[in-house]
Amino acid sequence: MGSTENSLKIPFIESLNFCEEHVIKVDNNFQENANSSFLISVINMTGLLIGLGQLSTAYALENGGWASCVLLSIGCGCGISCNYNYTDIAYQAFGTNGEIIALSFIYLDIFMALVSFTISMNDNLNILVSGTHLNFSWFSLSTSQTLTLIAILVSLPTVWMRDSKISFISTFGIFLSLSICVSVGFTAVFGGVKANKPIPVLRLENILPVSGLYIFSFASHMVMPDIYRSMKDPSRITEVSIMSFGIVTFIYTVLGFMGAKMFGPEVRSQITLSMPENLIFTEIALWATALTPITKYVFLVAPVASQVERNFPSWMSFSMKTVIRNTVGSLFFIFVLVLALTILFFEKVLGLTGSLVSVGISMILPCFFYLKIYWPQISVLNLVLHFTIITACTIVGVLGTISNIKSLIETLTW
User: Fold this and answer.
1) Which of 36, 217, 405, 409 is 20 to 30 A from residue 30's alpha carbon, by CA?
2) Which keywords does UniProt give here (predicted)?
3) Residue 225, Cβ neighbours under 10 Å: how many?
């Protein structure tokens, strides 16, 4: 760990040496393999963070009103504050029970994020292959589902990669995200779609469903500890975080306002699905969106496989560990595919994930960890602030979860 306290500060928390004092050191094998530079770390973190939020922000903005965009800023701020070894902090605060709770939330968050990415891939492929039919007598899947299955199988080897070796995938992911952003902008300028639709100030009746979409936009930051461990100089993690979250928030905001202004009430849960047909910009955006999940799978599956690997006995050879690690990651990956092809309701799953899981990981649990560790040192003002955050987020999370579950059930039974 770095020795400079200021380099590991957590925004919005009074005792800002929280992580440096309480994160338990990872084992020597992981420290020896830490070789990612500052630039590579920024690329990896940006590539991981930017994802489904760029597709859903326009929908959330239109349905929640432009004032609801403040939830995106809150999610960004809380995300920056949670990029260290999350489970170790949980253990320091509440022992084994805290670690188990943290791991449960993290794995559920990762699992639902993988499902959402796969649903997104299927939705966009469905438009790209519209009118094309692939018929196989031995199974009954639509053309888009078949192509999604093929894409998953092709991308399967990427989940076996480690640390800085995956930086080129992050770079490709950032390129795809920028392609989506540029394509939407070009559609407004050259595609005949005027960006003159009014955006309502605030729609309180929709705040609960869309809050989950906003919160989920930065949900993948729970995978940051793996990036933290891979850094040559982990004391610069806050600089990496601020730069990465800043880039992603800017892209989300631009796409959100562009999409809401261009399509108004007709904007769909994924902005690419709202774009006019038969435009080259639409084709580029759809393909970029369909390919984006492939660049995310490696980051999201890696923590699950790595956690399994860290629990292996010391006598086990590296090759045996690698085989078991990759097998677990692959089986987990395939299970996600099966579920994603069964539940094809993107905004419902995304909103449910944000309300049920992401709000707890990003906001509620970190506050509890901080209060438990620093209870004797916390000022009254800071105590009130944290309990206010916990109460507000719990209310939003519970009501948002109920709202999204009800909506999902109604959709499934319709």
Assistant:
1) 217
2) Amino-acid transport, Membrane, Transmembrane, Transmembrane helix, Transport
3) 23
